[in-house]
TrEMBL record:
Organism, scientific name: Paenibacillus cremeus
Entry-linked InterPro entries: ATPase_NBD, ROK
Protein name: ROK family protein
Membership in a protein family: Belongs to the ROK (NagC/XylR) family.
PANTHER family: BIFUNCTIONAL UDP-N-ACETYLGLUCOSAMINE 2-EPIMERASE_N-ACETYLMANNOSAMINE KINASE, ROK (REPRESSOR, ORF, KINASE) FAMILY
């Protein structure tokens, strides 16, 4: 996960283009291990793949889902946009996943020392929109 950081109306890019990397900030100290070696990184809790994995686990262990799990249904192609779509349809498990991901993202933003809004990288724009702005009916 990345954030675009602007200082004096200039986008910071960092020496390797990685300024604004927020995905490896610790949100839950005893959370899941991240490929970076840290525990509880934002990207392991709130990024699209984390939402997808959490929703798959919940669906497989529950009958309270629009996408009720049956052994012949392949949940692997499931994407975060699918989770958001069924959350909007009222799927309790999907709503739970989206709220939790949004909560972690909010914690990250609140803990940031940046006083102005973050400008999110393009690839996460749809996820952030899903987490923060309800679609008009």
């Amino acid at each position: 996960m990345a954030a675009g950081l602007y200082v004096d109306r200039q986008l910071l890019s960092g020496s390797l283009g990685g300024a604004g990397e927020i995905g490896h900030t610790t949100i839950v100290p005893d959370g899941p291990i991240c490929p970076c070696g840290n525990h509880g990184c934002l990207q392991e809790l709130s990024a699209g793949p984390a939402m997808e994995q959490q929703y798959r686990m919940l669906v497989r262990s529950s009958e309270n889902s629009i996408m009720y799990y049956e052994p012949h249904i392949n949940l692997q192609p499931l994407k975060a946009t699918d989770v958001c779509a069924v959350a909007e349809e009222g799927d309790e498990l999907a709503v739970q996943v989206v709220k939790q991901a949004a909560s972690y993202l909010g914690i990250s933003m609140a803990n940031s020392s940046i006083r102005k809004p973050l400008f999110w990288a393009e690839r996460f724009r749809s996820q952030v929109r899903c987490l923060s702005i309800p679609r008009p009916k």
